Amino acid sequence: MASDVRADIVVVGGINTDFLVQGSRLPGPGEHAEGHLFLEGLGGKGANGAVGAARLGARVALVGRVGMDARGRALLEQLEGEGVDTGAVVRDPGATTGVSLEMVDEEGGTQSLGAPGANRRLTRDDVLRAEERISLARVLLVQLEVPLEAVSAAVHIARAAGLRVVLDPAPARELSEDLLEAVHVIRPNADEARVLTGVDVVDRTSARRAAENLLRRGVGAAVVAAPGGSLVLSSEGELWLPDRRVELADTTGAGDAFSAALAVAFSEGKTLAEAARFAHEASALATMRLGAFGGLPTRDQVESRLARLGPVALSPDGARM
Ligand SMILES: Nc1ncnc2c1ncn2[C@@H]1O[C@H](COP(=O)(O)OP(=O)(O)O)[C@@H](O)[C@H]1O
Ligand SMILES: [Mg+2]
Fold it and tell me: Among 6, 31, 185, 188, which residue is least crowded by beta carbons within 10 Å?
């Protein structure tokens, strides 16, 4: 995509190479286990979000950092192959491209260890250089794999320019009220919700308590992924989207697919309830294939799943949104 083409969505976030090994079980501390499958591919929540949104039909630009190494070059080519504008991705001679080692068992259990490399060196100035790209877009999608000062700069540009801001708060950390107040929709998983709110998210009721806490602290809406489903809460009401049974491969990247789909739906003017239903199916599809990159679904896959299965069955006390 040429840099003079406007993006619907700008993603500011992490870019990694993922090395994934699947085995029948995960090794314990100090132990070696033998796996049977290896995948190497594009990863990092920024890159996953960008590719996820592009596959769902949006024009996407990514802001981030990779090293001057062969992996960095390969990732940029892969992103461009997916239609993502990488004109605001900095190539950093002083660091290696981020990497994440993912271990997956056959029941969907995962373990990972990463070295963020160049991702940790994304600066506020890198983001300010992308100010025009951000201001012309409709939605900003951010996560927490890059320094908070970069995230915060992007969020403030977006707010000033009237964009919607979607925050996927991973990896988990505490956040200032100043940042939370600038976020339209936050989408934590259960662990992240616990770090942000202190609420142990184990079901719909505790997910609601965590979401209420986040709304009190200034976010516009919260979508909390809990065991069994996703809880959507805004001042307009509440929605519970139960997880349907899926042929689970692994959930790596399924949350990234969720956030990307929310961003795409908002860029198309959909309501929060519509956006959450769309994202819920995108996320379910992403759990059916191993790894993040391979599992990010296309628009056609999400639309045909929605058409085939119909709206998700709501729990007895149903939707109030
Ligand atoms: N059985 C299931 N059916 C549908 N979706 C599922 C199922 N199990 C997990 N998910 C989805 O997987 C996602 C995991 O989110 P998250 O932990 O943020 O993943 P990541 O950050 O690795 O992408 C959630 O959106 C959840 O709804
Ligand atoms: Mg996540």
Answer: 31
